[in-house]
Amino acid sequence: METSVDRRSDGDWSAAEALEELDRVLASRVFAHSARLGRFLRFGVESALAGRTNVNEYSIGVDVFGRDESFDPRIDPIVRVDARRLRAKLREYYDGQGAEDPIEICLPLRTYIPVFCTRGGRCAYEKPFTPLIEVSRERESIAVFPFATLSAHPEDAFFADGLTAELIHALAALNEWRVVAGDPSTFGTQRPNLRESAGELNIDVAVWGTVRKVGSIFRVAVEVLTVPDHTVLASQMHEAPVDNVVAMQTEIARAICATVRLLRETPQEAPRSPAAGT
Known about the structure:
- The protein is α/β, with parallel strands linked by helices.
- It folds into 2 domains: 110 residues; 125 residues, Rossmann fold.
- It is 37% helix and 18% strand.
- Strands 4, 5, 6, 7, 8 and 9 form a 6-stranded mixed β-sheet that branches. A 3-stranded antiparallel β-sheet has the order 1-2-3.
- β7 and β8 form a beta hairpin.
- The longest helix is centred in the middle third of the chain and has 21 residues.
- 37% of the residues are buried.
């Protein structure tokens, strides 16, 4: 939403000012009777500024909501439910009482790491205690679409959601691209429609994949695609044991990041052809 606030040049926003914005939000009428959502938001903002990479449903359930170590997000959806409520509360605040605030705190879909925006600008993931910036469109842009599950098993969805969040954070932490979280409405077993997304999201490259549980392992298929022609630049298959989910989500996300960086640094020597079936 465009506002009349004074926009500052890159590098003028500090972590202290981001925390001041957090205090403004939590002191507002919108959050006056939402103590739990306030704790959720504070935990996320402080984690983002500290550069934490292990923020997930389990850690929030235990550290914010006081669940014990047996907390299972697949059974107890409190974090997902409250994340939706928190996004709605933030929209309500910035559409009303916070309309003139210089910074906006956003919680993108399918992640629990908040991002910070200059009003009327684009959001940017930040490293610990670095200034908040307006992201220039001249930077190459990459979209991460939600990983799709190939069965109705709840463990598949749990793993897919966690991997999507890990990959978004890992790519953004490199600070080499403008990272966009793809619309969850594209969720399914088919590739997202990149022809439509190109104009809406203003992106150059997309990452998408599927998750399927086979016995005691998750099989993860990943594609890196050009936008909007669906050219497949890389296709990978990863396997993760079900008893080591969080570590494997991080490892797979790092492997995908390494592939994207390599593709970015390696010139294409031959014309690229559209992927079969597109």
